[in-house]
Prior knowledge:
The chain is of the alpha+beta class.
Amino acid sequence: xxxxxxxxxxxxxxxxxxxxxxxxxxxxxxxxxxxxxxxxxxxxxxxxxxxxxxxxxxxxxxxxxxxxxxxxxxxxxxxxxxxxxxxxxxxxxxxxxxxxxxxxxxxxxxxxxxxxxxxxxxxxxxxxxxxxxxxxxxxxxxxxxxxxxxx
Length: 151
Ligand SMILES: CC(C)(COP(=O)(O)OP(=O)(O)OC[C@H]1O[C@@H](n2cnc3c(N)ncnc32)[C@H](O)[C@@H]1OP(=O)(O)O)[C@@H](O)C(=O)NCCC(=O)NCCS
């Protein structure tokens, strides 16, 4: 079954929380509710099988400012079946529709799955090492990637 991407709703909070806790069991997590406006989910049938974030960061502490994809997680049982791609395609469409000229994402240099998935969209490396407020990159360094709007 192919997953499709849609904006998250209140009904998705439980599923997103469970996916996040399973992917990052040691993390200190903020409640999902206030972040809902920035979240998208991948749905297969009636099941939420992944989620991801799209945020416009404008504050001066964000360098570069702009639209960032982030926090994409797919249920391990659903990986390599296109859910991450669906989430990324959906969030990119939302960013372009909102007027983005460039979309950024960053990853730990060791995260081959994430880097390979985003490479499929044409993201190219912009900065290494890259630092982002509140994020640590255990065992590797942060890498910033960007994708420029094509039209
Ligand atoms: C990264 C992640 C979201 C990818 O989700 P996914 O649904 O498995 O991705 P897709 O099925 O859409 O994969 C698309 C392509 O990306 C590449 N890819 C995905 N996972 C890969 C892996 N583990 N190793 C190498 N390439 C990979 C492949 O080219 C794949 O195409 P293919 O399956 O036809 O070979 C998923 O592995 C995940 O949730 N990881 C844990 C959380 C995480 O690290 N998030 C990223 C933080 S920056």
